[in-house]
Amino acid sequence: MGTERTATPTEAPAGDRSGSPDGAVPLTGDQAAEPVLRRLRRFAPAVAAYLLCAALLLAADTSPADIARYTGYAAWAVLLPGTLVFRALRRRPHTLVEDLVLGAATGLVLELGAWALFVSGGLQDLAIAWPLLVVVPFAAVPALRRHWRPTGYRRQSEGWSWATAGTVALTSVYYYEVFLSRFPILPQDETTRQYGDLPYLLSLAGNAKYNVPLTLPQAAGEPLHYHWFTFAHMAMGDLVGHIDLPVIEMRLMVPALSALGVLITAVVAQRLSGRAWAGPVAALLVFAVGEFTAAYPNNVSSWTFGAPAVRLMSFASLSQAYSQPLLIALVGVVGDALRRGRDGTGGGVPALGRGAFVLTALFALASSAAKASSLPVTLAGLAFAGLMALIGTRRIPWTIVRLGAVVAAAQLFATAVVFNFESYGLEISPLGNVHGYWADPQHHRTTAVQAVVVGGTLFAFVLNHQLKLVGMVPLMWRRRLRLDPVQWFLLGGALAGPAAYLAVSGFNASYFTLAGLPFGALLSAWGFCEAFERAALPGRARAALGAGALALIAGLTYAFYRHAEGWAAFSVRALGSGGWKSYYPLLPPLAAAGGLAALALVCALLWWALARVVPALRRRGGIVLLTMTLAVGVPGLALDVLQARHVLWEGTWILPATQVEGARWVRSHSDPADVLATNSHCWQFDDYAKGPWCDNYRSHWLGAYSERSVLIEGWAYAPRLMATAGGQASATAPFWDEALFKLNEDAFYHPTPDVLRRLNDDHGVRYLVVQRKAGGESPLLKDLTKQVFDNGRVAVYELS
What pTM was estimated for this model as a whole? Predict the structure, then answer.
């Protein structure tokens, strides 16, 4: 986020425009001779954002050594090799920040190849040296040496850099409040709570340290046909940075990837639109503006239309956090190829050139198994752009065809090689995710009333997830739908995401919606900036507009925080018809939207009346309405912070410290090839219940904290079972191999020398790990095996 003052017209070289819309200015000889301190000022925003994040990590009990090691890992094993390769692929430099952030995304792709090479070869101890595979050629080959110190950069304005750094800081503070400060790195006592899926995700990262491809840690040897690239990245953080995986998961990974996502969004928006300020606006839309909802607390059960775009999912779904920067980078290089072709330029931003196709292949390959929803939405966007180009020009758009072929090849690779054609239970079911809101099985409603309910449900869906995309409307209106190919591409991706959610059944289908939102946010920011430019607001008016947006955000936050429950009751009384109806959860946001729309109408009439006597107000009401509309999703962040202080997220569960202590003892006293057996198969056991109680088969703690494969632990997330459960966790289905499960249980409750021998000889089991709340082991185990650990809750027995 390097910054410098904006050049004056006399400082610009001949032929350049100092006020070019891309917001970057070329370096001149006078600027190159600036004092050192003044030149260092360019890096103040980046340094400030980094120091704030580091301070928040320290406040969350993160070791300074771990922060330093992770910084070194990111610089050495992601940023350095990735930036060198990116510089070799792009034609001409634009800005330093673009080289670094798209270089970091390139580094994430290269890291996957290094992981596969070193782990499959059993060379984990040498993984720290993998960047030398890039560094040495770039140091030894004369044609590549120039990429160490490129020239010709343009400088971002200080305003752009501070605005982008401010968005990074905002996300860092948010994650500190809702995640870092709420969940310890390791459980501290017997009542510590953790979000339920995090141990499972941790177990996959532990598995990735030793297996290519990954297997299911909770069912030793079971293939894992899943988007597991995220966990290869986490494994490399451990292998290269020598950082404990729980520290990476619970502290370092989420804010780092979020910061990278903010920066990539900013440079991609600038590159595609040619407008510098589209960058910070797009970053805010993606990372700070959430869904419109009138609910508080907004817990998991009250999510009306699947996973939220901003809140919670960035740390509960680590694949979402990892895949988002890669997807946005992919959108950027595809959009660059569409906007300029190989030789043109747009908005003062130089084209990437032929390297855009190579970068497309790299980012598509990494995105393919980073999140399964990324490439289908991208392909749909390209197909939509191709169709519009074919209709408009009556010629085959070969650039789109070539890009589509590259992305389709990456999708085919993931589908065949990584996913093994598994669908995880997703099925074509038009409107299957929303039809429950208008369900009328007894046919009590008239056709007209049912039409209103259906229309209201679909409008609520658009209102909830898509309101932040309203900025694209003035752009399309002004151009009369005569859009550029890149704009059709962004619009196609924005439409494809929610369309897939509405066409495919299952909660996981909501990730298609999340994949489509960055496309729409980029186009929305583009449209907002064009509208803002046309409004030509003077300085005081801009300040007033910003103050008004902040006041609206504060007012809505207070209103929802204090009165959401009463508002929900009022909405049901006013709009309901007696007796519980399936659509009642949608009434509060619909009523709130109606109230805000009425207020906007009144304000619009007053504005029109005032504009007749105050000429300065004319043709500027639209930008005020657009700004306020985009702002109404921001209160979600503040409400999340308030909620995290008072209300636990639904889906958290007790993870006793003694269980983790036992698992980590096993990690320290076993080899990666050792297999464990356990009697713990359930999500959690209620310490206050009379006897064992199992809520579902989602025990993941042993595989997570031991970093070892378990013969049979929890199997709810096994691909073979999720495929039969509509993409949901198969929480109550029995284990598929009854004989093996009986052998496992007999080892704990009815042990014999033959049972233990079969476990050891046939399945490689070395340790039996007893979770006594699940059931006390047989006294015979002490005679037949060697007890090596016992902390009261967890006991470990070693098979000879």
Answer: 0.92
